[in-house]
Design brief:
Number of strands: 2
Radius of gyration: 19 Å
Strand content: 5-15%
Length: 149
């Protein structure tokens, strides 16, 4: 129930989905199995940045978020072990405290330099074809590749 409005009431999309959850999930499963499911356009949301300006987010509709979470549950155990141990962003069970502990460990082992970077508009600049090519190296189900694409 993450999708609550500021006033504490459930988002109408969530409430409508929950009212017929079993049927909705069954229909979604059938559409996915038949290769007929298509993602809907994302909703553009502007979030003010503390430093000024806005961050533009694309928010998928609820059913698309359900598909994304299902893909994450399948792909995370396959992909996470392949990531570098110093990568902490967007990883289950890792966060800022883990990054700080790794920095302290590096310092204590004699390292003296730290580089922190943030690539502006990183995700739009990543070529989708390359992500899918690398995903094919570890996932042999073309339906999963198609869904990620």
């Amino acid at each position: 129930r993450d999708a609550a409005l500021a006033d504490g009431h459930p988002d109408t999309e969530v409430a409508a989905f929950e009212a017929n959850a079993a049927r909705n999930l069954d229909e979604l499963g059938t559409a996915l199995a038949d290769g007929e499911w298509l993602a809907s356009p994302v909703r553009k949301v502007e979030i003010p940045k503390p430093s000024g300006g806005v961050r533009i987010l694309g928010v998928p509709c609820l059913i698309d978020r359900v598909v994304e979470r299902a893909l994450l549950r399948v792909l995370d155990p396959v992909i996470d072990p392949l990531l570098m141990p110093w990568s902490f962003a967007y990883r289950r069970g890792l966060g800022a405290k883990d990054a700080l502990a790794a920095l302290a460990e590096a310092r204590d082992s004699g390292m003296s330099w730290v580089a922190r970077s943030d690539i502006e508009d990183c995700f739009p600049s990543i070529p989708q074809w390359e992500v899918l090519r690398r995903l094919r190296e570890v996932v042999d189900d073309e339906r999963v590749i198609h869904l990620v694409g």
